[in-house]
Amino acid sequence: MKLAFLVFFLATLLAAVLGQTGEFYPCKADVFSARAVLLHQEPKVNVQCGVANQMSSRIVAGSVVTPNEFPWMAFLRITFWSGDSAMCGGTVIDGRWILTAAHCTFGAVSITVILGAHDITLSSSDANRQEFTSHKWIVHPSWSYGDVENDIAIIELPFPATFSEYVRPACLPYVDDPNQLGNPVTLLGWGNYSSIPDSGFSTYLRKTLTTVISSAGTTGQCQQQSGVGSFSGDKIICSDGSQGRRFCYGDDGGPMNFYDSYWGTYSVVGIAWIGDKSSDCQNSRLPNIYTRVSYYVNWIYNNTDIVPTPRPVTTTTTTTTTTTTTTTRPTTTTRPTTTTPTTTPTTTPTTTTTTPTPTSYPSGFDCKGKPNGVYPNPWDDCSRTFFYCSNEYVYEYVCPDAGTVFNEVLCECDFTENVAGCWDEHQRTEEFTCYMI
Ligand SMILES: *[C@@H]1O[C@H](CO)[C@@H](O)[C@H](O)[C@H]1NC(C)=O
Ligand SMILES: *[C@@H]1O[C@H](CO)[C@@H](O)[C@H](O)[C@H]1NC(C)=O
Predict the structure, then answer these.
(1) Which of 78, 198, 279 to mutate to test the pocket of ligand 1 (most atoms within 8 A of CB)?
(2) What are the start and end residues of every segment in region (Disordered) (predicted)?
(3) Which of 60, 137, 57 is CA-nearest to residue 96?
(4) Which of 1, 192, 258, 273 is the most exposed place for a label (fewest CB within 10 A)?
(5) pTM higher than 0.70, yes or no?
(6) pLDDT higher than 80, residue 295
(7) What value does the mean pLDDT take over residues 213-235?
(8) Nearest-ligand number for the alpha carbon of 87
(9) In this predicted structure, what is the pLDDT of residue 418?
(10) Within 13 A of 86's CA, how many CA atoms are on the CB side?
């Protein structure tokens, strides 16, 4: 492949020189700037995602949470050109990135992100807040205002958040998560919570416990009950909105959290769609419509360096044990005792399930015991992200910024032989245009 490209490249160059066809554009200078990120220094490697703080003992629909119970919860104040502002929720998924809904960023000129907050009033005495003003966010390219599907965006913080007991990331779901039908989930937000008209937003962060309902295909229970038209259940996760268990105006962009009891961690499985403005929001019994994050994990990865977490492998071993039971016949007192043993073999299957221990929760590539060199991304055969091990330290390279492996002649990342499947035909034409024909 590479040789074929080189031949093609030289032919193109020759053709260009001869003035017969095409033009040759030199590589952009910035692609030569090396960018090696020492993953060990990135906060995400050292912080276990999805660890909640002490839970409130009262678990009632729509209750105020224990302060900082969900340390990944972000408060967003969106500022528009007009000077008006709106509020949304968001989720810390990394030291640098906040997950929210695309519609929350629509028309915004800047977004203030407040982390570690519980009481969002200006006079709040929350001591552990961290505040950022961002002008940079990425909206899903397939989303348009009003769309139900693809309502997802990521906000980049101008500098990394400091992780603490009060500010920590949530886990992202696995790419291959099941539909989670019937799973209990927790919705979070500072939005309208009362059915009294104009009663306003909540001062304190509130949570609502609900259950995932079906959004299968394009005509599931959620699609039928919500009345917002057809949408794909692969891209949307819905939960039951009866008994006041609803997200409302102001909760937009906030997380639907799922607790994985094996790992003891929460992942953000949904992002709140447009919250209902009506004062009847709580009583409408309409489903809660959330963007299904598992569908977008690879999109997040494409736009950040948050590597999707591979699902831990569970191995099941079945061993068959044969036990010999000896039964002795009853003896008669009148005759001399004769004992005839009868042997009955019994087969007992024992199933042992082994799952890796949560202490080794996968958060990145491990260079322990590996010789120095470049390694393919084990979770993505044809990734632009790969790893370099140097004295057991892991560095991450993202092409085309990877300085030391960037080949100036080919004008592309020159992956070494051991980077499996890393050919990038589409990358060359779509994202990394060094030449044009
Ligand atoms: C929701 O809160 C906002 C902000 O306080 C308020 O303007 C709006 O009237 C509230 N909506 C309802 C239905 O109470
Ligand atoms: C990620 O980027 C690659 C390369 O540009 C593209 O082919 C792929 O469709 C993207 N995936 C997602 C989920 O955005």
Answers:
(1) 198
(2) 311-359
(3) 137
(4) 1
(5) no
(6) yes
(7) 93
(8) 1
(9) 41
(10) 20
Structure tokens at 269: 């499985």
Backbone angles phi, psi at 390, to 5 degrees: -135, 115
* Per-residue DSSP letter, 84: -
Residue linked to tokens 């528009």? 80
Residue whose structure tokens are 């990331």: 169
Return the beta strands (E) in 21-127 as ranges: 37-38, 63-64, 73-80, 85-92, 97-100, 108-115
Q: Which two tokens stand for residue 413?
A: 């990342």
Q: How far apart are CA 415 and CA 419, in angstroms?
A: 6
Q: Which residues contact 247 (CB under 8 A, 6 or more apart)?
A: 187, 189, 191, 208, 241, 254, 272, 275, 276, 288, 290
Which of 138, 139, 175, 302 to mutate to test ligand 2, by most ligand atoms within 8 A of the CB atom? 302
**Average pLDDT of the residues in 213-229:** 93
- Six token digits for residue 222: 């959620």
pLDDT over 60 (residue 425) = no
Quote the radius of gyration of the chain (alpha carbons, Å): 28
How far, in Å, is the centroid of ligand 1 from the Cα of 159?
A: 33
Torsion-angle region of 411 (φ positive above 0: left; ψ -120 to 50: alpha; else: beta): left
Protein residues with CB under 6 Å of any ligand 1 atom: 192, 197-201, 249-250, 279
Both structure tokens of 18: 């001869």
Rounded Cα gap, residues 374 and 386, in angstroms: 7
Peptide bond into 158 cis (omega under 30): no
Structure tokens at 235: 């891209």
What digits encode the pLDDT tens for the residues 63-111? 888 888 999 999 999 998 888 899 999 999 999 999 999 999 999 999 9
The 10s digit of each residue's pLDDT in 340-351 is: 444 455 555 554
Buried (b) or exposed (e) across 41-72, using 16+ Cβ within 10 A? ebbbeebbbbbbeeeeeeeebbebbbbbbbbb
Q: How many beta carbons lie within 10 A of that of residue 406, not counting itself?
A: 20
**Could you count the other beta carbons within 10 Å of the beta carbon of residue 163?**
19
Kindly state the tokens that stand for 238.
């819905």
H or E, element range at 105: helix 102-105
Q: How far is CA 404 from CA 65, 305, 311, 372, in A?
A: 49, 19, 32, 14
Lowest mean pLDDT among 150-154, 302-306, 336-340, 395-399: 336-340
Condensed to tens digits (0 to 9), the pLDDT of residues 325-379 reads 444 444 333 333 344 444 455 555 554 444 443 332 233 567 778 777 666 655 5
